[in-house]
Amino acid sequence: MNVQWYPGHMTKARRMMQEDIKLVDLVVELLDARVPVSSRNPDIRAMAANKSRIVLLNKADLADEAQNRRWEEIIRAEGAVTALVNARSGSGLKTFGQLVQEACREKIERDRRRGIKNRPVRAMVAGIPNVGKSTFINTFAGRSVAKTGNKPGVTKGKQWIRLSKEVELLDTPGILWPKFEDEEIGLKLALIGSIRDEILQGQELALYLLGFLAEHYAGTIAGRYGEIDEKLPAPQLLMEIAKARGCLKKGGEPDTDRAAALLLDDLRSGRLGRITLDRAGEA
Ligand code: G4P
């Protein structure tokens, strides 16, 4: 699939990430809790091979709570330090300091053995576009007492945000390119708004979503748009949504383009409820 990530963008993102990663001890990988598999960059493991790592499931407020718990368990079982968070409200981030301690235990102990005291852990945030990297940084920067400013020599031109005595965060996130291994991943990333809409037709996305909801979240459509027979095939269902919402063309025909846009907007804003597109155990 050809999205806004042309090879040139990807090469640049990779180069910048490789440069910045040299400056840090810890990489905080943000995933979208609604798509913990599809929002994962395939190369991050190799790039962060010698670094401590935390995997945060962000936008947990928009994802299915039962699925959140399962995904958290799965990621923890893989050996990663992880948590469910909402970077916008800050919920789940109070214990971030503890996660850092846990993820960097070896480094902290090594420093102690060598007699190095008070050297903060340096961290960077990384993730695919729109996953909430800037929000995460701003949430901390807003709280943070001091930005530490430039540190010539070691970190030329880089700004660090001091989160505590123990942790400093690079103020520019690492942008990772999404993976486009198959069409379904592309559809899911487009549904959550990580890939721009023009790339895929709104209707194609809406039909895929309706099929998905019928399978995993029965009652959602009727719950949101009123008495609609959810058993109808997706194209007809979209027409019913158009009628229910008064999306009509000049001649009175249902305007399925507008209905599709409305449906996608309702999904992304959480008005359809908390929905997880990558299913734990089925990935
Ligand atoms: P990026 O740097 O990774 O590209 O993402 P960014 O922080 O810009 O966040 C993308 C959008 O996701 C923003 O919404 C942001 O508010 C929202 N967001 C980030 N974290 C969370 C979260 O945990 N929960 C929810 N519900 N939303 C989150 P926006 O519509 O682009 O901007 P705005 O409405 O905040 O102004």
Characteristics of this structure?
283 residues, alpha/beta, Conserved Hypothetical Protein Ylqf, Chain: A, domain 2, 7 strands, binds guanosine-5',3'-tetraphosphate
Regarding quaternary structure, how should these chains be classified?
A: single chain
Number of helices: 11
SSE topology string: HEHEHEHHEHEEEHHHHH
| CATH topology group of the largest domain | Rossmann fold
Quick check: average pLDDT? 89
The CATH architecture of the largest domain can be given as: 3-Layer(aba) Sandwich
Structural domain tally = 2
Q: How would you sum up this structure in a few lines?
A:
The protein is of the alpha/beta class and 283 residues long. The protein has helices at residues 7-21, 44-47, 65-77, 96-103, 105-113, 133-143, 183-191, 202-216, 220-225, 234-244, 256-268, and strands at residues 26-32, 52-58, 81-84, 121-127, 160-162, 167-170, 174-175. The relative contact order is 0.15.
Give a verbal description of the structure:
- This protein has helices at 7-21, 44-47, 65-77, 96-103, 105-113, 133-143, 183-191, 202-216, 220-225, 234-244, 256-268, and strands at 26-32, 52-58, 81-84, 121-127, 160-162, 167-170, 174-175.
- With 283 residues, it is an alpha/beta fold.
- The protein folds into 2 domains: 8-171, Rossmann fold, CATH 3.40.50.300; 201-282, Conserved Hypothetical Protein Ylqf, Chain: A, domain 2 (Orthogonal Bundle).
- Strands 1, 2, 3, 4, 5, 6 and 7 form a 7-stranded mixed beta sheet that branches.
- Helix 3 links the parallel strand 2 and strand 3.
- Helix 8 (202-216) crosses helix 11.
- The radius of gyration is 21 Å and the shape is elongated.
- Guanosine-5',3'-tetraphosphate (G4P) binds at residues 58-59, 61-62, 86-88, 127, 129-135.
